[in-house]
Amino acid sequence: MSGWEPGPNPFPEEKIERITDLTYVGELNFVRHAKVHLDKPPKSLWQLTGDFSATMTVHPKTGAAYALTITAPRGLYTDLSSVPKALWFVVGPIGNQLENSILHDYLYMAWTDHRDTAQREDWRFADKMFRVGLKKSGVGWLQRSLMFVAVHSCIGWGVFRTKPYSLEQRMNDWLPHLDPGHDRGS
């Protein structure tokens, strides 16, 4: 399967003051490919087997609040929660934060398909959604604070803006891995 297209820009056009009413839609389903070795980042074995979404109300700094849905697409590869192994004693790759981490990773990758119109406010929105989602998911204050500081730092901004690829390129590479009979490197 190829020909995946990114669709509309998932980021709000205006500066967002706050996000409320975040709700996950459907179930998060993924598969672990034991023998796939990706030669391009992210070098992960976990792949979404269906779309995964969250709805939320965004409150712009000016204008009326409105509903927004963010959808991580079927076929997206993920490293689950992007936590270095050395820090797993604080927070591991799987936990209450998982659904929110997948959507946050998607936004960090989706930016690459909208470079022409992307702005620092998009990064801020992704991180605001991450913080709201962590609280909604029941992640404790200390873990939530540490995770937010990690993504909303110069390191997070560097990761967000410097990806040398587009999500569209990656999705067209990744989607065939879900096809029945695909040789996954065995």
Q: Could you describe the largest sheet, including whether it forms a barrel?
A: 3 strands, antiparallel
Order of helices and strands: EEEEEEHHHHH
Structural class: alpha+beta
**Biggest β-sheet: strands ordered side by side in the sheet:** 1-4-5
Average residue-wise pLDDT: 79
The portion of residues forming beta strands comes to 15-25%
Low-confidence stretches: none
Whole-number count of domains: 1
The helix content is 25-40%
Query: What does the radius of gyration come to?
Result: 16 Å
Gap between N and C termini, in Å?
Answer: 20 Å
Output the number of helix runs: 5
Shape: globular
Structure, explained:
- This protein has 186 residues and is of the alpha+beta class.
- The protein has one domain.
- The protein is 31% helix and 18% strand.
- The chain is built from five helices and six strands; from the N terminus they run E-E-E-E-E-E-H-H-H-H-H.
- A three-stranded antiparallel beta sheet has the order 1-4-5.
- A hairpin with a 5-residue loop joins strand 4 (52-60) and strand 5.
- Helix 1 packs antiparallel against helix 2 (120-136) and helix 2 runs antiparallel to helix 3 (141-151).
- It starts with 15 loop residues before the first strand and ends in a 12-residue tail after the last helix.
- The model has no long low-confidence stretch (mean pLDDT 79).
Characterize this entry briefly.
The chain is built from 5 helices and 6 strands; from the N terminus they run ββββββααααα. With 186 residues, it is an alpha+beta fold.
Can you lay out the helices and strands and say which pair or pack?
Blueprint lengths: L15 E10 L4 E3 L13 E3 L3 E9 L5 E7 L4 E2 L19 H13 L9 H17 L4 H11 L2 H8 L5 H8 L12
Antiparallel strand pairs: 1-4, 2-3, 3-6, 4-5
